[in-house]
Specification:
Elements lengths: L2 H14 L4 H6 L7 E2 L5 E5 L4 H6 L6 H12 L8 E4 L13 H18 L3 E5 L1 H7 L5 H4 L4 E5 L2 E8 L2 H6 L1 H12 L1 H5 L1
Parallel strand pairs: 2-3, 2-4, 4-6
Antiparallel strand pairs: 1-3, 5-6
Length: 188
């Protein structure tokens, strides 16, 4: 089975098992992810927003445009990376995903990552960081590569602020850009 077929089967499993029925019932689309299925880098956000729900693609709104700008600045393109979220349905009114919603989707995220098999996972925001670096504070560890286990193998996790946070808090914008620009070097 190809990676795309495996990811399609994973998405179908989410639908068949009616994961987070409250979220599923009010969302337009299941937003699995987008990008290169053989990517060395996977970006993980928290959950789809309004634009993402409408287009069934992650990071296509304002935060996505900023992410694209940062990718370009780091000499990367969306087609070179894979982008997803922990929670695959949009929470109502763009609220933060609840702990039980993140927990429900976590096994699917892990399987998704095992299919793609990246060398580096970049968490965007504290919600996705918490799984890989429990107890860490993003203000203390942002931009610093950490080693962790994923499916029995070691993987590098780089926690970054969420692009949306930089849009709302101008002082984080340069911090996020600076952290982001170190990514290509860290991957080498």
């Amino acid at each position: 089975m190809s990676k795309q077929e495996q990811l399609d089967a994973l998405a179908q499993d989410i639908r068949d098992k009616n994961i987070t029925p409250d979220l599923a019932s009010q969302a337009l689309n299941l937003v699995m992810g987008d990008g290169n299925l053989d990517a060395d880098i996977v970006f993980i956000g928290e959950a789809p927003g309004k634009n993402e729900d409408e287009q069934a693609l992650p990071f296509v709104g304002a935060a996505g445009k900023f992410l694209n700008t940062m990718l370009e600045a780091a000499s990367l393109e969306r087609k070179d990376v894979y982008i997803t979220n922990i929670v695959k349905y949009r929470p109502p009114n763009n609220r933060d995903p609840l702990p039980e919603e993140k927990a429900a989707f976590l096994p699917y995220l892990i399987e998704q990552l095992q299919i793609i098999n990246p060398k580096v996972i970049i968490t965007l925001g504290r919600h996705s960081m918490e799984y890989f670096l429990p107890g860490a504070k993003i203000g203390e560890v942002h931009g610093q590569p950490q080693q962790t286990q994923l499916g029995g193998r070691e993987v590098t996790v780089i926690p970054l602020y969420h692009p949306a946070a930089a849009l709302y808090n101008g002082s984080l914008r340069q911090t996020l850009i600076d952290d982001f620009l170190t990514v290509p070097e860290l991957i080498k």
